[in-house]
């Protein structure tokens, strides 16, 4: 494994799989609250050609409405520039360097346009950023667990100025994600400014195959959590009527 170096490793890599992944909580100060998820996935063949999938999802806590959208594109090969990233497909875009990021995305009735800045230093997971992603596959992985955020949620045509906190993951490597049983990932922001990342990977039979985490202190100090230090248990499940896939729903984290 190579050392993870900033800001060079904020940018894209010559790797089979890579993603820039954001989750956040937003509010306008008047009681209106939104949750969002925005991610750009990259899959890249050895020759450089690849594809992108952009996901954006919005939860409106006032109305209980949830909307999502997926967009896919096959752009020219990306250059490894070492000066940040600008990845996009359709309306979904993530760009930035050093935690100073810009996000845009849209569903049928919502649009988001957000500016982010770091509230904590980046956190390297595992062994200096080199960590398992499946039972026999490895990746590079870091998070920015508290990005201070301002921007706009356009709610059915009405612009709502918002602020909040966002969690960002950047992960890459020559891993396939094929043949597994999915995983549970949790990014937890606690009220004392402590953050906790936990990943529980399941095998094809749905049984836990790899569990690990990182405890992040208020100033950004990180402690790796091995499999015997963390446990995730789902409390329910939901079965998709379209695909038959079974998803966990609700968790107990110890």
Largest sheet: 12 strands, antiparallel
Strand content: over 45%
Topology order in helix (H) and strand (E) letters: EEEEEEEEEEEEEEEEEEEE
- The mean pLDDT is 91
Overall number of strands? 20
Mind telling me the C-alpha Rg?
Answer: 18 Å
- Helical content, roughly? under 10%
- The rough form would be described as globular
Class by alpha and beta content: mainly beta
The parts where pLDDT drops under 50 for at least 5 residues are none
* Oligomerization category of the chains in this entry: single chain
Q: Span between N and C termini? A: 30 Å
Individual helix count: 0
Describe the model:
The chain is mainly beta and 254 residues long. Helices cover 0% and strands 60% of the residues. The chain has strands at 17-27, 33-44, 50-60, 65-73, 85-89, 92-97, 100-106, 110-118, 123-124, 130-134, 137-155, 158-173, 183-189, 195-202, 208-216, 222-225, 232-234, 237-239, 246-248, 251-253. Strand 15 and strand 16 form a beta hairpin. It is globular. The model has no long low-confidence stretch (mean pLDDT 91).
Topology:
Elements lengths: L16 E11 L5 E12 L5 E11 L4 E9 L11 E5 L2 E6 L2 E7 L3 E9 L4 E2 L5 E5 L2 E19 L2 E16 L9 E7 L5 E8 L5 E9 L5 E4 L6 E3 L2 E3 L6 E3 L2 E3 L1
Antiparallel strand pairs: 1-2, 1-12, 2-3, 3-4, 5-6, 6-7, 7-8, 8-11, 9-11, 10-11, 11-12, 13-14, 14-15, 15-16, 17-20, 18-19
